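EI: anyone free to look at a 337-residue chain?
SC: sure, send it
EI:
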Amino acid sequence: MGLLAEVTRGQRVESQHFGRAVIVDASGKVVWSCGDYEASIYPRSTVKALLGLELVESGAAARLQLSDAELALTCASHNGEAEHAATAQRLLSRVGLDVGALECGTHWPTYEPAARQLAGAGEQACPLHNNCSGKHAGLICLSCDAGIATQGYIDPQHAIQKRVTQVLAEVTGAEHREDRRGTDGCSMPTYAIPLHSLAHGFARFGSGIGLSADRARAAQTLREAVAKQPFMVAGTGRYDTALMKEIGLGAFIKMGAEGVMVAALPDEGLGIAIKVDDGANRAAEVAMSALISRFGGDILRNKAAQSGILERTMCQSLRNWEGRDVGEIRAALNAGT
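SC: here you go
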């Protein structure tokens, strides 16, 4: 366990966030680590882009003529803003279905202004607003393209689940066994794997090294779609969107629940995985920005420097209700090896 981030108030450290982080190259070699990176964690939503590989690699995305925005949404944990919900509906429309096909459940948009707008219009939230609706719509598209019934697509024994889970196992190099399976918030299965394997998978996803030619092209297609449409992968005010808007293809970044975050640095051939022990996403954000700043290449750093995005996100101001600066949350990764 290592210290990933600390929170200050005034001149004192008020809170600390501990956890694990590891940077791995495409061969699986550890470049940097902090804490026990062989311990298994649930990757949660960080692996959505890996789940989307089969949609592209199989040719389904091309046959259905999915747009960059639609592909980016399949990788998303979005805010539930109007554009996110509309794009999820367009995905379903590609195969002649509607919101009734989704099995992700309903919650109000996580972006408060979007929830207020929806309520103010007298409308109710629906599964399209679920932050995972893009991933689910992508699986439905894959099922329909393959001629497989979509009902129950969230079940681990469903044919389409077996296909995408096999891809996860192949890309990360980690077994996805029944005894390691849990259920995610959107009812999809999630499998506990070593943090090292998660980082290794994203080193491969970013570089294409260790993947077949078709899978490497699929990974590139998804990364390009997200770089062109970063709003779709998260939304207004979100860390993932803000960084990829500035960095573009220099990094693929994805937050998951419970303080899990990953990044792929394609030019450097590196994958990064972080798990904050107390589940605080704010700590994962500052730690990730610090690691990207340290291990990203000159091109990435120069692009980020134009907007100062890494500096702003590795040390974030904390403000009270009057907008006064009262402290900060900052990366604390000096203990890494």
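EI: The first strand starts at residue 2 and ends at 9.
SC: 👍
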